Structures are given as C-alpha cells and as structure tokens.
Amino acid sequence: MNTEDLYQLYAVHGLVDTDTRNIRKNTLFFALKGANFNGNKFAEEALRKGASYAVVDEEAYKTSDSIILVDNVLETLQKLATYHRNQLNIPIIALTGSNGKTTTKELINVVLSTKYKTNATKGNLNNHIGVPLTLLSMVKNTEIGIVEMGANHANEIAFLSEITNPDYGYITNFGSAHLEGFGSLEGVVKAKSELYDFLEVHQKKVFVNPEDEKQVARTNAIERIFFDDEIQFIEANPFVKISFKNEAILSNLMGTYNFANLSAAITIGNYFGVSFEEIKKAIESYIPSNNRSQMIHTDNNTIVLDAYNANPTSMRAALESFSLLKAAQKIVILGDMFELGAYSAKEHQIIADITQNSSFDAVFLVGKNFYEVETKNDRAIKFETFKDLESHLKDSEIKHSTILVKGSRGMALERVLDSIN
C-alpha cells in the first residue's frame, strides 16, 4: 500500500498508536520493532482492542485484511507523517539544542495557546519516532505546530527536519551534551546546525538569541528574528523575574539560564501577535514538572529538583545559578552525567572542581564516574552507588538547608526525596 492510500485510512479518524497498552478505538496501529520487542506480534491484539488497522512488516503476521503489510513499519510511519504535515496549511516551529529544549517548547506552547489552537511535542518524544507521532497528532483545527527535535548523532537533525518541514526554527544553545555520539563540541555545533542548514536551503526563518555569539554567527544567511530587546533580566532569587515592555513578569522557573528560554517564548509569542497581557499570564501560570527546576518544600528543607537530565554545560549552569541563590545553608547532590565517552573522566573532574571552589556547605557526588574524581576538602563526599547515598541521607539529620539535586536521567536522583524530610 502506498503512502497516499494509507493516508486515506488514517484521515478517517486521525489516530495513530504504537503501543497496545494504550490502544484507542479506530486507530491505526504501527507495529514498530525495538531491541527487545517485535511489534508485529501484537498486531492481532491491537485489532481486538479496537484498532481499525494494523501495519506490519513481516508477512507471517498478515493474518487478515485489516492487517497491512509494508516493507518497513518505521519508514512507513515517517513517510505518513511527512505526507500529513504537507497537507497541513499551518506554520510549524522546530527547535533543538543541547539544553533547555523541552522547557522552551513548553513555554512557547503555553504562550501561543492563549491565542491559537496549538499542538506540541508531548514530553520529550523528540526522536525519529516521537517527531512523526507529534506531526500525526495534529488535527484539522490545529493552527500552529511546535516540534522538539533531539539527537545524539550527526545527521539526525537533518533527517528530522526533512520529516517536519518547519517554517521557523530555534536552537537553544550549543553545549557539551552527547559527546560520545557527536565526538566533540564542534561535532555538537555541526549536528545541531543541521536545522539551520534546512532553513537556509528552504528560505525559512529563524529565531535567534542576539547574546549567543555562536547562534548569531551560524545564522547570517537566514532571515532572522532576534529576541525582543524590551526583554530584560531582573533577578533569579529563586525564581526568574524579567521585564517586558517595562512591566515585571515573575516566572516559576529557577536559574539564570532560564532567562533565554523565557525570552524565546516571549519573542515568539509577540511575533505571532499574542498580547502582552496573555504572554504575562501564560508565563506566570506555567509551573515546571517532570523533575525540571522544581522547588519542593519538605518539613525541614527546600529542594531544587533538576534531575531530569544533565550534561557538563547544564551542570555548570545549574551550579553557577545555585551559588547565587540566597540561602542560609546550601547542599549539592550531583549524579553522574552519561553519554560523554572519552570526555567522561575530564568533565566529571571539572564539575567536581567547581563544587570544591564554591561556597556550598556540603557536596554529595554519586555514581561510578563521580566516585573516581579527586576532591580537595572534606565538604565533598563520594558515593559509588545511589544506595550508598541513600543510606547516608537516612543516617544524616539534614535541616534548614536548600538542596540542589541534579544528574542524568539514568541516575533517577528524584529518589532522594524519600530520604530527605
């Protein structure tokens, strides 16, 4: 079955699912494969649960007329998404970057949704599967699409750009993330800039932070929309407070690094005609979740939970911002940073040195990588495993402290909440 014919089936209900645990009635089920699963095996189950059709790529599983056999299910899903995107007569904003993608995407969405029917990437479903699913979730009355694109190897952003065909782009920053896949910081810059390459070739537009010299230098050949110069930073203690059109806006985001994320959302909202009042209301009502820059008050302490992800750039930014926070006693709990390859030992040592040269009252470093770093004073304690940290926290009586918790997703450092009251 070709893409156009498949699209006619999709267009009846506009639903696509890839997991039989969450099948919706009259959906199209795509039997994707993974390292540890074969979706073809669940085609009949999907039909029993209400799917109208199931798409498979192994002939043995085509057991009825409701099961569609294709050469490759994933490629078929991607082609269908691009075909659908090209039927949508709407602007699509694509964003990528080393840090702040998801927060910025959510801020853009809450601002634009005050005036438009928007559809944005759910969570961080920003890869070769998530992007097609995001596009296919856009319906007839969607007025603006917002697509987050992630990558850990070269050519991925270029591929996702071809699928998405964005009208506007934004890159949050270039940082030391996924160095194992990109090879170096220069590799990160080149790979993320694939979005710029697409926008230039297709004569599209880009939003640019004028304070980021790398972004400015990389976008000379593209029509640029710079951040609004009426956006000014006021303070971050603990939440970021900014000024726009000479009026203050107090966000629920912590860390000076979120100023750029807020500026992007305000600029994009203003560009698309959202009123100042609606922009202010949207930003002040947005509360971060999913372990991203959350402030949690326990009986005895205040926890700054930023444990969704970490890389050297975001770790340094978080530590710098936390060091400026006004608090009687500050404690830092840091977990290993993943996907750094040959740079891992060096980058973990750099972060450890930063903590040692700061005025934090205590530093807890957890994970196999941090366990190998050298520390200069007894304010730092290393733990090889989370269980070791957990035991220490339960035996310690931490009170009246503000605690930063940050580490890569695989460390799941949000678990410390069970040990700190």
TrEMBL record:
Residues annotated as domain Mur ligase central: 96-268
InterPro entries noted in UniProt: Mur-like_cat_sf, Mur_ligase_C, Mur_ligase_C_dom_sf, Mur_ligase_cen, Mur_ligase_N, MurCDEF_CellWall_CoF430Synth, MurE/MurF_N, UDP-N-AcMur_synth
Class in the EC hierarchy, top level: ligase
Pfam families linked: Mur_ligase, Mur_ligase_C, Mur_ligase_M
Binding, ATP: G97, S98, N99, G100, K101, T102, T103
Catalytic activity: D-alanyl-D-alanine + UDP-N-acetyl-alpha-D-muramoyl-L-alanyl-gamma-D-glutamyl-meso-2,6-diaminopimelate + ATP = UDP-N-acetyl-alpha-D-muramoyl-L-alanyl-gamma-D-glutamyl-meso-2,6-diaminopimeloyl-D-alanyl-D-alanine + ADP + phosphate + H(+)
SUPFAM superfamilies: MurD-like peptide ligases, catalytic domain, MurD-like peptide ligases, peptide-binding domain, MurE/MurF N-terminal domain
Domain Mur ligase N-terminal catalytic: 16-81
Protein location: Cytoplasm
Presence of keyword Cell inner membrane: no
Residue stretches making up the Mur ligase C-terminal domain: 292-408
EC number: 6.3.2.10
Single annotated GO MF: UDP-N-acetylmuramoyl-tripeptide-D-alanyl-D-alanine ligase activity
Involved pathway(s): Cell wall biogenesis; peptidoglycan biosynthesis
Keywords for this protein: ATP-binding, Cell cycle, Cell division, Cell shape, Cell wall biogenesis/degradation, Cytoplasm, Ligase, Nucleotide-binding, Peptidoglycan synthesis
Superkingdom assignment: Bacteria
Sequence similarity: Belongs to the MurCDEF family. MurF subfamily.
Main function: Involved in cell wall formation. Catalyzes the final step in the synthesis of UDP-N-acetylmuramoyl-pentapeptide, the precursor of murein.
Name of this protein: UDP-N-acetylmuramoyl-tripeptide--D-alanyl-D-alanine ligase
Organism: Tenacibaculum tangerinum
Gene that this polypeptide is encoded by: murF
